[in-house]
Specification:
This protein has 117 residues and is an alpha+beta fold. The protein has one domain: Beta Barrel (OB fold (Dihydrolipoamide Acetyltransferase, E2P)). The longest helix has 10 residues. It is built from three helices and eight strands, in the order βββαβββββαα.
Length: 117
């Protein structure tokens, strides 16, 4: 469901309440895991399928509220919209390629590289 970096350890929270801990850096996990994972914060990688809800500052995964990086908030919210996780009306106030909901949005969505966020 998500990966959390805690200083020198990384915690992996999987389905069925399974938790794993190791010392592989979160940036390495970001390269290992499939495209469905989004770096929402310097300490968190989240599988977008498990995002239940969000607001401008957090996403909810299971019962956990995880912070969204202020630095990359716009890109993360646009990416979630492109992935179908949020509606276009919720990002209308953001400047960006997805706000028109048309061709420009589709081109932007295809060009996004979630690993760089």
């Amino acid at each position: 469901m998500y990966v959390e970096s805690r200083d020198t350890e990384v915690w992996i929270y999987a389905t069925k309440s399974r938790t794993f801990r190791n010392r592989t850096p979160i940036t390495q996990w970001q390269n290992i895991l499939e495209d469905g994972f989004i770096r929402i914060h310097r300490s968190y990688l989240v599988n977008h399928v498990f995002i239940e809800s969000y607001d401008n500052e957090t996403v909810t995964v299971g019962s956990q509220l995880l912070p969204i990086s202020r630095k990359n908030r716009k890109e993360i919210l646009l990416l979630l919209q492109c992935l179908g996780r949020i509606g276009a009306h919720e990002t209308d106030s953001l400047e960006g390629n997805c706000s028109d909901g048309g061709q420009q949005r589709n081109e932007y969505c295809h060009s996004i590289d979630a690993r760089r966020i």
